[in-house]
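User: Could you check the structure of this?
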Amino acid sequence: MPEYDENTSRLEKRRLQTEHRAARRRNIAVALSAAVVVLVVLGLGGWLIYQKVHAKPKPVARVYKVVIPEGLNNKEVAKRFDEATNGSVSEARFTAATKTGAYQYPFLTGANGNLEGFLFPNTYEVTSLTRAHTAVDMMLKDFKEETGSLEWGRAAQLGVTPYQIVTVASIIEEEVKIPEERPLVASVVYNRLKKNMKLGMCSTVLYALGEWKPRLSNADLQVDSPYNTYKIDGLPPGPICNPGFESIRAALYPASTDYLYFLLTSADGHSSFTADYAQFQRWKDEQNKKQ
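Assistant: Sure, the predicted structure tokens are below.
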């Protein structure tokens, strides 16, 4: 209550009483506000504690390493991802991602959506949460980074496009067993193209057949496919595998030779090279006698 004595006027008493009531209302409002704040804080804290106690643990992403060697085609790469990730990046999803993803890279000019040749061989780290599209994009980014230093302008000097360089590189990757022979095989390819000779590469026939064979039959060599370089003129329409850096470099920097023929003539993987068909045929006859 407000304090006043007998000399306090009635008007002054009324004023003091009004101020006292207003002060009480303010104090009550402050107390109520503080109580509400306390209740909200306690409620929020309780809710957070409840959520923490009852929340489901977040799944822990498992990490996988996927090793992609040189020379695999896209189908084989998809299978590697499936096996290495226990199906997390499945063969079906990976294959679909190579065919439906809108990947914007300048080096894909001329590919018309065909990613064969551009899934760069390397060791990739993915997780159980990695999407197939992301995995494919990782490989394309690697192609860009690993081959960016090469002189792609040399393609025009060789009479081909940058896309065809990758096609040549894929043939080199499949045909060569000994690394130092890559530029030699490249020279055979370009020498044959200049002379309008059919390339006659067994690796392209195997790609057309869709299966590996230790030896091709005459019937195999007649398979009707734009990838059968025993029947078509020039290069096949696209790469036949995903080549590594060294094969791509060999396609850009072929050896300077007059070679038109080569044949595997050694058990350790070495080939013999010649510009003379008669010599090539003699080597071929010798190898046939050994089989």
